[in-house]
Amino acid sequence: MAEVLVYVDHVDGAVRKPTLELLTLARRVGEPVAVALGNGAGDTAAALAEHGAVKVLTHEAAEYADYLVVPKVDALQAAVEAVSPAAVLVPSSAEGKEIAARLALRLGSGVITDAVDLEAGDEGPVATQSVFAAAFTTKSRVSKGTPVITVKPNSAAVEAAPAAGAVEALSVSFSAQATGTKVTSRTPRESTGRPELTEAAIVVSGGRGVNGAENFAIIEALADSLGAAVGASRAAVDAGWYPHTNQVGQTGKSVSPQLYIASGISGAIQHRAGMQTSKTIVAINKDAEAPIFDLVDYGVVGDLFDVVPQLTEEVKTRKG
Amino acid sequence: MSLRIVVTVKYVPDATGDRHFADDLTVDRDDVDGLLSELDEYAVEQALQISENSDDDVEITVLTVGPEDAKDALRKALSMGADKAIHVEDDDLHGTDAIGTSLVLAKAIEKAGYDLVVSGMASTDGTMGVVPALLAERLGVPQVTLLSEVSVEDGTVKGRRDGDSATEQLEASLPAVVSVTDQSGEARYPSFKGIMAAKKKPVQSWDLSDLDIDEDEVGLENAYTTVDSATERPARTAGTIVKDEGEGGKQLAAFLAERKFV
Ligand SMILES: Cc1cc2nc3c(=O)[nH]c(=O)nc-3n(C[C@H](O)[C@H](O)[C@H](O)COP(=O)(O)OP(=O)(O)OC[C@H]3O[C@@H](n4cnc5c(N)ncnc54)[C@H](O)[C@@H]3O)c2cc1C
Ligand SMILES: Cc1cc2nc3c(=O)[nH]c(=O)nc-3n(C[C@H](O)[C@H](O)[C@H](O)COP(=O)(O)OP(=O)(O)OC[C@H]3O[C@@H](n4cnc5c(N)ncnc54)[C@H](O)[C@@H]3O)c2cc1C
User: 70-129 in B: which are within 8 Å (CB) of A?
Assistant: First the structure.
């Protein structure tokens, strides 16, 4: 069977969930060969093997952390040359998309970004995309070269599928461009202890209706009662009530959880672009005419300051 | 010293309109009003600020690849304060994908001459967020992308990139390609004076032959990606909506329990 390269997103050897999802999708189109780069690359092998990687190509070098994007493109290109895969799959983060695009260009291939599903087709992998703020679903293919496709988080279930996961060192020589953009400092984001926004099964979001940074505590309390991540609308972020990294929408994160709860959010098209593919949508808004209600499975017309704390209490009681 | 900035701007269908696909599965541009992609306004704004903060002689050129109407996007950018514009227009460009678009933009940027390219973080239609990286690859210059803060001094561009897991400070020598996010600072509104002045600013039109690009390198037929189908997402079935009369939170909890979230 043809091999499929999967780019591994990991933090010091801890593989992030979207990569494990990619291994599930990769098995539909071939045999997954994972490529893990940078500090801790070798430590990823066990998790990758458990989820179907037949081989794990690793390379550690300071360049991956010290310079932006290009060293990773160089390494993936080396992996493609070593393996001649049927496709290359990359998690759809901002960086993942840039890596994928530059790789495709070097390979003389096309690139598809933000796939939400992937299947084998007669002419190569067929990607499903959700476009125009999720108003349309398209099926597309890369029609020239080795398909390079980025896949959004939560696009597939993580499935265990034990495989050999044999670790092999990848040999990489960096291009002249590799050291072009220096990372002069890096400040890791402090962990909140809550699930990662794009990976969470439940997201609880607050908007302008939350009316103040301190009031986000009630959104957080609901999130914690459900084991959820916290999101925010751009209006709440622009007001400085919540960090931009938690923004959901076109210029924030796009999320596709099992459950999305919007409180005090009107549902503007740019917000919908980031959450419309959530499986179950719930909204709390005091305006019965708010467009968010067009999307919901369940909506409460009411003041979030009454409804959200009551909901939180009830969830806690039910969970015991 | 002089600094030549090229700002890429895309003409897109209004996101608040009824966007849909044409029969050939490209974006229908006839039924929905077009405008300068809002995310490119941030790019124009940052170029203007770089210019205002610079002791050098700065010239800002805005560049678009798009149909006849895309001139509207150029006019808007000129009225914000850019100096001149380039419009790449050719019937053979219809249906060009990201790889092809980046070729046309890169050739035009080279022909125009540049020290710095400034783009938006993504377009509001394709929303791929890949074109700036593709331009850097094609031009063989550093990419300093997704910046929420940017500055240029002594031939060096610096910026802050707020990533998923960390905030990074980046630095590269010019020439370089920069993209800026909507966190980089509100874009200014064109003033009346700006709008009047824009009418007199030069807009150059180039076609594929001006850029030495063969027609078989671009367009729908030659794209590197093929769209096989586009279907409208079925309307969500109407959900249950209750008015809170004191029990709204409890009712919602019951719904969540029914769906096994609690
Ligand atoms: C290029 C571009 C990109 C954008 N990207 C994004 C993006 O990524 N994400 C995003 O969210 N937006 C984005 N926006 C902004 C978007 O258009 C909206 O302005 C924004 O989503 C509005 O946020 P909101 O719903 O919180 O605020 P509003 O629209 O002001 O809505 C607040 C809602 O809260 C309700 N409310 C008020 N008080 C209460 C209360 N006590 N209890 C219950 N309900 C209450 C009100 O009825 C109202 O419906 C973008 C815009 C542009 C132009
Ligand atoms: C819904 C949809 C999905 C698509 N999916 C794919 C896909 O998977 N693969 C693919 O190859 N193509 C795809 N395309 C086509 C692609 O969007 C266009 O080729 C496009 O010009 C480049 O991608 P983008 O607009 O997404 O750019 P982005 O990478 O999101 O744009 C970033 C910046 O690049 C600049 N820019 C982009 N296009 C132009 C332009 N024409 N003129 C001037 N500046 C520009 C702007 O500054 C913009 O802010 C898709 C188009 C649509 C409408």
Answer: 97-99, 102, 121-122, 124-125, 127-129
Query: What is the span of the domain harbouring residue B80?
Result: 2-222
Tell me the average pLDDT of chain B: 96
Note the pLDDT tens digit of each residue in B105-152.
999 999 999 999 999 999 999 999 999 999 999 999 999 999 999 999
Which helix (H) or strand (E) element contains residue B47?
helix B38-52
Q: Which of B98, B127, B166 sits opposite A188 (nearest CB)?
A: B166
**Percent of chain A whose pLDDT exceeds 70:** 100
| pLDDT score at A112 | 98
Which residues in B lie closer than 8 A to residue A254 (C-beta atoms)? Answer: none
Count how many domains chain B has.
1
For ligand 1, is residue A291 a contact (CB within 6 Å)?
A: no
Tens of pLDDT, residue by residue over A60-98, are: 999 999 999 999 999 999 999 999 999 999 999 999 999
- For residue B65, what is the domain's CATH number? 3.40.50.620
Question: How many contacts (CB atoms, under 8 Å) link A and B?
Answer: 263
- Would you say residue A233 lies in a domain? yes
Let me know: does B117 contact B61? Beta carbons within 8 Å: no
**Contact at 8 Å (CB) between A20 and A47?**
yes
* The pairing of beta strand A31-37 with beta strand B166-173: unpaired
What is the Rg, in whole angstroms, of the alpha carbon atoms belonging to chain B?
22
Measured from CB, residues less than 6 Å from any atom of ligand 2 are A 110-113, 131; B 8-10, 27, 37, 39-40, 43, 64-66, 96-99, 101, 105, 119-120, 122-123, 125-132, 225
Residue ranges making up the domain that contains A207? 202-319
Is A269 marked as binding a ligand? yes
Closest ligand relative to B38 C-alpha: 1
Q: Is A143 found in the same domain as A8?
A: yes
Residue B235 — very low, low, confident or very high, per pLDDT cuts 50/70/90? Answer: confident
A270 is in an annotated binding site: yes
Which amino acid appears at position B39 of this protein? Answer: L
Q: CATH number for the domain including A107?
A: 3.40.50.620
Residue B18 lies in a domain: yes
- What residues in A contact B128, CB-CB < 8 Å? 97, 101, 111, 113-114
Closest protein CA for atom 36 of ligand 2: B10
Residue B12 lies in a domain: yes
The reply to whether A284 falls in a domain is yes
Ligand 2 centroid to Cα of residue A300, in Å, is 38
- Render pLDDT for B146-188 as a digit per residue (tens, 0 to 9): 999 999 999 999 999 998 889 999 999 999 999 999 999 999 9
Q: What is the Cα–Cα distance from B219 to A122, expressed in whole angstroms?
A: 24
A117 and A13 assigned to the same domain: yes
A223's tokens: 């999130």
Mean pLDDT in residue range A296-305: 98
Interface of B with A in 143-202 (CB under 8 A): 143-146, 148, 158, 161-173, 176, 181-183
For the segment A217-228, the average pLDDT, to the nearest whole number, is: 98
Question: How many Å is the Cα radius of gyration of chain A?
Answer: 21
Place of tokens 């019951």: B254
Q: CA-CA distance, B244 to B66, in Å (whole number)?
A: 50
Q: What is the mean pLDDT of residues B94-101?
A: 97
Q: B35: how many CB neighbours lie within 10 A of its CB?
A: 20
Residue B230 lies in a domain: no
Which one has a higher pLDDT value, A50 or B22? A50
Evaluate whether residue A8 is within a structural domain: yes
B14: how many CB neighbours lie within 10 A of its CB?
15
